[in-house]
Design brief:
Blueprint lengths: L1 E8 L3 H11 L6 E4 L8 H4 L4 H4 L9 E2 L12 E2 L21 H9 L7 H11 E3 L13 E5 L5 H12 L16 E3 L1 E2 L1 E2 L2 E2 L2 H9 L5 E4 L3 E8 L2 E9 L2 E13 L2 H11 L2 E2 L1 H6 L6 E2 L11 E9 L5 H4 L2 H14 L11 E5 L10 E6 L5 H7 L9 E8 L7 E3 L10 E3 L6 H18 L8 E6 L7 H11 L1 E2 L29 E3 L14 H16 L2
Parallel strand pairs: 1-2, 1-14, 2-11, 5-6, 14-25, 15-16
Antiparallel strand pairs: 3-4, 6-8, 7-18, 9-10, 12-13, 13-14, 17-20, 17-23, 17-24, 18-19, 19-20, 21-22
Helix pairs in contact: 1-7, 1-15, 5-15, 13-14
Length: 534
């Protein structure tokens, strides 16, 4: 039975950061366990490969939610990374921090040390910002962040349309004060994806004190009374155990972290007993408080300009492949989401509560919904999506059996809260407001989805229930706080246990206003400091 100082469960965004930071001290023996495999697929590293990895079961868990009442009983596909780098190896590569008010609220909810001013140094520490260092950004960190290098006339027209619709320009949406429109910042460097694995794990992988095991499916955390002492896992048909002298750190994300805790006897008592699992610590909040961003989009057929649709096949695609091979530029070097903006659903909202994403392409909606496939349509088009940033609806993640290979039951409860109805409808109105502007008129041919016949608030909400989908940002299922439903404290230690932490997006008490990869990396950077200097 191998002995380590730290055992990290999950080599996703948080796990890779911790593996790097904790193993930087040569006297620390660190074991990193990843249920997926190595990040060797070329589709991971080519940015446009997102379209392949989004539905590839070799690198993606491809979870399916339970039938969701708020979205007409649909079972949504939830991609999650099953590979070194986790979801940072298959995501859309957008670098978004959220708003300062998001983190100040975390602090107000009973989590000292997590306000904007306290977390900003960790965003900066992680960052290698191509614009250079300033009061809000850092350079020299592992995570390269860059502006999009691909500016097309169509994308420029969409930005101008946003300005004409009343959205302000925002040269830096990551300074804590969102409220504008522009090209996205990306975790792409020289035409290649920068995942947590390439940024953090690869530089540390050769350290003799860091041991990385792939295809290692964790069964449970081992306890002596309520003290975590190690991990049991399956690998190559064997059941193995490893001991941790200092800490076991769960970094499985919003789905797998509550699953691991529940399998280990930490969770709601009724669920554990029903599945025949001995209760180590009664923790009713494990698997509760699930939050996710739901996107609802309109699609437009366009003219007089090249969208990504035309570039994705035949001779144009061959030219784009050549551009990437020889210059690391062009279609293959891009994120699918090139533009975003932040707006208010109504003037009384203190800060923007809607994100508008603009993609110069349209996808086959049926294949996206049923198979999770990102397949571009043949005809040229544009997609503009609206995302309510701070949903009030809450879901759950609960194990179905005591077998770690059985996926948990994921119940997102989308559009359960009435407040989300209003913001979603207003988001679609913002989408149309942008598309109706003069700057987009030379390109706009027709709104194909949902179509102009969908006009009333009731019809727009009905369309959202039928056509909305996840934006891949689940959080909150092991929330940080001091109330009875909190799972970890402000140092991310699991309440009621010893030598056990959770470090990932599941600890967020409230979903932040934007994409979640950069905040997850920040959480792990801060956690590393708390572990190394308690």
């Amino acid at each position: 039975m191998a002995q380590y100082d730290f055992i990290i469960i999950g080599a996703g965004s948080a796990g890779c950061v911790l593996a790097n930071r904790l193993s930087a001290k040569p006297n620390h023996r660190v074991l990193l366990l990843e249920a997926g495999g190595a990040d060797t697929s070329p589709y991971i590293h080519i940015p446009a490969g997102f379209a392949k990895t989004l539905s590839d079961p070799r690198v993606n868990w491809l979870y399916r939610t339970e039938a969701d009442p708020g979205t007409n009983g649909r079972r949504h596909i939830w991609p999650r990374g099953k590979v070194l780098g986790g979801s940072s190896a298959i995501n859309g590569m957008l670098y978004v921090r959220g708003q300062r008010q998001d983190y100040d609220l975390w602090r107000q909810l009973g989590n000292p040390g997590w306000g904007w001013d306290e977390v900003l140094p960790y965003f900066k520490k992680s960052e290698d910002q191509s614009r250079g260092a300033n009061a809000d950004h850092g350079t020299g960190g592992p995570l390269h962040v860059a502006d999009s290098l691909e500016h097309s006339p169509l994308a420029d027209a969409l930005i101008e349309a946003g300005l004409q619709a009343g959205i302000e320009p925002d040269p830096d949406p990551n300074d804590g004060d969102q409220g504008g429109i522009g090209y996205t910042q990306l975790t792409i460097k020289k035409g290649l994806r920068v995942s947590a694995a390439t940024a953090y794990l690869r530089p540390a992988a050769k350290r003799p004190n860091l041991h990385i095991e792939t295809r290692a499916q964790v069964r449970r955390v081992l306890f002596k009374n309520t003290r975590a002492i190690g991990v049991e896992y399956n690998q190559d048909g064997q059941t193995l155990q490893a001991l941790a002298g200092r800490e076991v750190i769960v970094c499985g994300g919003a789905i797998n972290s509550p699953q691991v805790l529940q399998l280990s006897g930490v969770g709601p008592v009724n669920i554990l007993k029903e599945k025949g699992i001995d209760v180590v610590h009664a923790a009713p909040g494990v698997g509760e408080n699930l939050q996710d961003h739901l996107v609802v989009a309109a699609q437009y057929r366009i003219q007089n300009g090249a969208s990504l649709n035309e570039l994705s096949r035949g001779l144009p695609l061959a030219k784009e492949i050549s551009k990437w091979l020889f210059r690391r530029r062009g279609l293959l070097s891009q994120s699918p989401s090139q533009l975003d903006g932040y707006v208010k659903s109504n003037p009384d909202v203190a800060t923007p509560d809607l994100q508008i994403l603009m993609i110069p392409a349209t996808v086959n909606g049926k294949k996206m919904a049923q198979e999770g496939k990102f397949e571009l349509e043949r005809e040229p088009g544009v997609t503009i999506g609206a995302i309510p940033l701070r949903p009030e609806s809450r879901g759950t993640v609960h194990i179905k059996t005591s077998n770690p290979l059985d996926p948990p039951a994921i119940a997102p409860n989308y559009l359960d809260a009435a407040a989300d109805h209003r913001v979603t409808v207003e988001g679609l109105k913002w989408v149309r407001r942008i598309a109706d502007q003069a700057a987009f008129e030379p390109y706009r041919e027709a709104e194909t989805v949902p179509g102009p016949q969908v006009a009333s608030d009731e019809d727009l909400l009905s369309y959202a229930r039928q056509a909305s989908s996840t934006l891949y940002h689940p959080v909150g299922t092991c929330k940080m706080g001091a109330d009875a439903m909190s799972v970890v404290d402000e140092t991310l230690k699991v309440h009621g246990t010893q030598h056990l932490r959770v470090v990932d997006a599941s600890i967020m008490p409230r979903l932040i206003s934007g994409n979640t990869n950069a905040p997850t990396i920040m959480i792990a950077e801060k956690a590393a400091d708390m572990i190394l200097d308690p």
